[in-house]
Write a structure and sequence with these properties.
By secondary structure, this protein is α+β, with helices and mostly antiparallel strands. The chain contains 19 helices and 11 strands. The chain folds into 3 domains: 202 residues, no CATH class; 90 residues, Phosphorylase Kinase, domain 1 (2-Layer Sandwich), CATH 3.30.200.20; 226 residues, Transferase(Phosphotransferase) domain 1 (Transferase(Phosphotransferase), domain 1), CATH 1.10.510.
Length: 548
């Protein structure tokens, strides 16, 4: 490789990564969001085509013969119209039901337009010779011109691609006329043919204009979606704190998950508070990124956009959050629960020794995934409510503005509700007890009709033992461990996740669950995640990858 070649390779990678949409000898690609929206609009196009073919069939077989005694049915074009109706209906079903990529559906849409143009050309070629030159219909343009315009309005594509496809569609009329002339020796006059066909060619060039507009907007969308070295690809989910997107690194072959946190959800009411939020965000993002437990979500990067939106760049995981897992497959056996609890404790113990308190431990923030060759690999997510202890600014963490209560009521420790003492690591221990309770029983520690009742239960009601609410066997030692975490008085609980981790390792009920059992479970219940190490297909991202 010559010295100039590495620079050329890097330049090609940069063009690919940044979504360069400059036209060259090859067709350029539109952004995923544009292609997905276009694929959805193609079903509208197929619906319109099916309706128009049905109307033409009705006109030629019923309405026109009934309204005119001299009208003669052209039986040769009726089968063509039937094919148009059936083909459009089948294509609509295909676009609605199949799970192919949006790019593939876009290509299918172009093929659908050409199919309709070919059918229209056949109908025109068989009908035009019967029209006398002096008939007033001579100035009527071909329906192919209308087809080209409708398609360009509903699903415009790349300019060069639209021009070539539209010119091919416009050429079907003269081609079909020539074939009919060769077979039957009848054809319209040259003047008729020119008047009949030229609007289609005119439309073929006109539709390049909206295609170029879409092309330019797509380039701007592509540029707007670039965050640092990452480019947003598609939104995976959204929640109260923001949105999560799948992203690609511009230079490395690595996917990532980017969480966008908008300033308004953090309660910044003026410029000064916005600056304070930014400083806290930067400090806490750095603290979170410093965590190195393998069971903590990795943070690759963070920053702020020109619009004031914060973003985290995290690893992209393939699996299910614990809440979704239990809702779908039911409560976990005791051995599996303690197996996962140890991993979560490992993550939080690392945070606790560094002076961090998570403050929003709940099943939705614990991800169970496949990591390399390991199954049932737990990852703790969303340190967005993290609080930094032992600092002069600890009272002003990222989400404690305006004395607001943070966390999730079903997993909130009593001291978090009362607010009369500083929240510390023992609040995470209480939440972990609630999580383990949910994992074993499939139900919350306390049932309540509203948030206030839930909070009052956490303050005053003693919890029922998990073994009394579960149909699965739960050893007494695990019962006792969970009830120890759920003590109302923080002093009576395990004092941090490290202490709880030691207690979890003392439980012998985990002997029935390991990598072999986990692998068999995943192969039986989530087989799409047990083959290739690639993350699930895009249509499954919303349920199989990290969410808000």
């Amino acid at each position: 490789m010559t010295p100039a070649q590495p620079r050329q390779v890097l330049a090609r990678r940069q063009d690919t990564a940044t979504g360069d949409l400059r036209e060259s000898g090859r067709t350029t690609r539109l952004p995923t969001e544009v292609l997905s929206e276009q694929a959805a609009r193609l079903t509208v196009f197929t619906t319109v085509a099916a309706v128009l073919w049905s109307f033409a069939l009705l006109m030629d077989t019923v309405l026109l013969p009934a309204l005119s005694d001299t009208w003669v049915r052209n039986w040769r074009i009726i089968p063509i119209e039937i094919v148009g109706v059936a083909g459009s209906a089948c294509m609509r079903w295909y676009l609605k039901r199949t799970s192919t990529s949006a790019e593939h559906k876009s290509a299918v849409g172009l093929g659908m337009m050409l199919m309709n143009a070919a059918l229209i050309a056949i109908v025109n070629a068989w009908a035009m010779p019967a029209i006398p030159p002096e008939a007033p219909e001579i100035g009527r343009p071909s329906w192919i011109a209308l087809l080209i315009l409708i398609f360009a309005m509903i699903a415009p594509g790349v300019p060069r691609q639209m021009l070539v496809t539209s010119l091919i569609a416009a050429s079907f009329d003269p081609l079909a006329t020539f074939i009919v002339w060769m077979l039957e020796g009848t054809a319209p006059s040259l003047v008729q043919s020119i008047i009949f066909c030229w609007p289609s060619y005119a439309c073929a060039f006109v539709v390049v204009v909206p295609a170029k507009v879409l092309h330019r907007m797509s380039r701007r969308l592509k540029e707007a979606q670039e965050l640092g070295s990452y480019q947003l690809i598609e939104r995976l989910g959204q929640g109260g704190m923001g949105e999560v997107w799948r992203a690609e690194h511009r230079f490395l072959a690595r996917d990532a998950a980017i969480k966008l946190v908008r300033p308004e959800v953090l309660g910044a009411r003026n410029e000064q508070e916005a600056q304070n939020v930014l400083r806290r965000f930067e400090r806490e993002a750095q603290a979170t990124a410093a965590l190195n437990s393998p069971h903590t979500i990795q943070v690759f990067d963070f920053g702020i956009t020109q619009e004031g939106t914060f973003y985290y760049v995290m690893e992209l995981l393939a699996g299910r959050d614990l809440e979704s897992l239990i809702r779908e497959f039911g409560p976990l056996p005791a051995a599996r629960t303690i197996y996962l609890l140890r991993q979560v404790c490992h993550s939080l113990a690392d945070a606790h020794v560094r002076g961090l308190v998570h403050r929003d431990i709940k099943p939705a923030n614990i991800y169970v995934c496949r990591m390399g060759l390991d199954y049932d690999f737990a990852k703790v997510l969303d340190f967005g409510l993290v609080k930094i202890r032992n600092r002069s600014t600890s009272a002003d963490s990222l989400t404690t503005m305006h004395q607001s209560t943070t966390g999730t009521p079903a997993y909130m420790a009593p001291e978090c509700i009362v607010g009369d003492v500083e929240v510390d690591r023992r609040a995470d221990v209480y939440a972990l007890g609630c999580v383990a309770y949910f994992a074993l029983t499939g139900s919350l520690v306390f049932d309540a009709d509203n948030t206030m009742q839930m909070l009052m239960h956490h303050l005053h009601t003693e919890p029922v033992r998990p073994s009394e609410k579960s149909e699965l066997p739960i050893p007494r030692e695990l019962d006792d461990l969970i009830l120890a975490c759920l003590q109302k008085d923080p002093a009576k609980r395990p004092q941090n996740a490290g202490e709880l981790l030691g207690m979890a390792y003392s439980c012998h009920c985990s002997d029935g669950w390991g990598q072999e059992e986990a692998r068999h479970w995943w192969q039986s219940h989530l087989p799409n995640l047990t083959g290739s190490l690639t993350v699930a297909t895009r249509r499954e991202h919303h349920e199989n990858v990290v969410s808000v």
